[in-house]
Amino acid sequence: MTRDVRAAVFRPDDGRLAAAVELLESLGATPVPDAMLAVEPTGATAREDADYVILTSKTGVELVAETEWGATRREEPNERAESEATRETDTTVCAIGESTASALREAGYAVDLVPAEFSSAGLVDALEDDVDGARVEVARSDHGSDVLTDGLEDAGAYVHETVLYRLVRPPEAGVSAERAAEGELEAALFTSSLTVEHFLEAAAARGVRDDAVRGLNDAVVGCIGDPTARTATRHGIDVDVVPEEASFDALAAEVVEAAAPSRHE
Length: 265
What we know:
Layout: E1 6-9, H1 16-26, E2 30-33, E3 38-41, E4 52-55, H2 58-65, H3 68-73, H4 77-86, E5 92-95, H5 98-107, H6 120-127, E6 135-141, H7 146-154, E7 158-168, H8 175-181, E8 187-190, H9 193-205, H10 209-217, E9 220-223, H11 225-234, H12 248-259
Parallel strand pairs: 1-2, 1-8, 4-5, 4-6, 6-7, 8-9
Antiparallel strand pairs: 3-7
Helix pairs in contact: 2-5, 6-7, 8-10, 9-10, 9-11
C-alpha cells in the first residue's frame, strides 16, 4: 500500500510554485503549497562597465533583461551560439548554476561561465585565478551570501553589488507550519536558507513554532544544498535529504521517495 505523502513546498508564487505543485503531483505526492518568498524589485540596475557580471537567479535574469544593459547584450540565437563558441567579449557573463544559465539563454544572452559546483563558493573557485584587478558586478537579491563577494575581493577583484530585488515573506504564509504542528505533513522541501527562516517566522507568528519543528522532525525534510541544510540544522530541524544535483526536480524526487518508498512497489 502506498503511503500518502503530504509535501510542503515553499517556492515563490510566480510560476515556480505552480510548477512545483505539478511536479509533486506527478510523483504521486499531495502538495501543500505555501509560498515563503515574494519578490520586491528595487529598480536598481547593474553597472555597465564591469569585466565580469554574475547572475545568481532566474528572477535576477528577468529583472536585468528589462534594463538597458540587458537590452544591449541580448543576442539572436545564431549570434549566441557563435559567441559562446568563439567570441571574446568585453564582459564575461557568469551564472551560479544551470537553472540561471538556462534562464539567461532563454532570455537571449550568451553564458560564458557556469561553475562545476552550483554555489557561491563554486563561483569563487571558478573565477579566483582570473579576476585579480578586474571589475566584477554581482547582481542579485538582498539576501546574497557574503561568501561570493568576500571571496572575489580576496582574489583581488573590485566587486560591486547591485541589489535587484528584495525577498520578503508574504503575509499569508504559514499554512504549512500549522499543518506541520498538527502532524499533517510527511515531507517538506526547502530551496534556500531564507525559506527555512521564513517558515519559522511564519510558525512563530501563528504561535506554533516549537510544534512545527517537532512536526518537521517527524517528516522527511529535504534541502537544496549544504548551506540550506546547515541553516535548517542550526534551527533544530533534522535534514534527511540533500540531493547531489542542486535542482528542485532532484530534491522533489528524492524526498518523495524517502517519504514513501513503497510508491514504486
